[in-house]
Amino acid sequence: MTAPADWIAVERPGYLGSARDRTHAQWDAAYGPGQWRLAWLVNGNAFDREQMTMLYEDAYYEFLRYQVTVREQLIREARDVYDDSPTNVQSGRDYRVQETGRTHVQDIAIRRAVSRLGLGFEGDQLIQIRDSLGEHPLSMTLSPGQVPFHRPHLILSPGLEGWWKPGSVEAFYQSNKVLQITRQAQQASATPAWEPEVRA
Questions:
Q1: Is the peptide bond before 144 cis (omega within 30 degrees of 0)?
Q2: The pLDDT of residue 167 is above 90
Q3: pTM of this prediction?
Q4: Cα(96)–Cα(76) distance, rounded to whole angstroms?
Q5: Cα pseudo-dihedral 155, 161, 162, 167, rounded to 10
Q6: What ranges make up the beta strands (E) of 7-165?
Q7: Domain extents for the chain?
Q8: What is the DSSP string of 101-114?
Q9: How far is the first Cα of the chain from the last one, in angstroms, to the nearest whole number?
Q10: How far is CA 165 from CA 72, 119, 177, 188, 196, in A?
Q11: Distance (Å, whole) CA 74 – CA 134
Q12: Could you read off the pLDDT of 120-136 as tens digits, one per residue?
């Protein structure tokens, strides 16, 4: 396995969405399979997906902990939540279970946050949590583009812009995400390294 020091950040790819698989194929072609990875920079440390989701989930936990009205409505009305497909419920509380062609995190984070609060869904509605695409009022309220990130000082500056609000969970997810390649791939491709801006 490649040592951490042998990974070089080369860009902040931003939101991939439906272009994810195509972009991954391009990185395979440019750097070689197994020679690149996505990581999240937090205080200068490269976090893997598991580490990143802990922070992501904590933001939902803190939001639901203090937004009592939202929490009570969610518990009362939802039987479960999903992102891009009702099949997302198959993931349960396991971030590693990704059954569609897109990555879904917010639904799992909500399930886990509800569990951490000692609660469970009591309603009969399967609620989509996907910004303006969901029909339920909580679709927007609990969108990662709306829920504030609980530790905003950790979001890399300048934050990347997109469909999400600055300072949101999605702002953290997208702004701190970097493409890293092995030192060998970086030297072979002559790809310049990327460095975060230093805050004054």
A1: no
A2: yes
A3: 0.91
A4: 28
A5: 40
A6: 7-11, 36-42, 45-47, 78-82, 125-128
A7: 4-48+172-189, 50-156+160-170
A8: SS---HHHHHHHHH
A9: 36
A10: 24, 28, 16, 38, 21
A11: 14
A12: 999 999 999 998 777 89
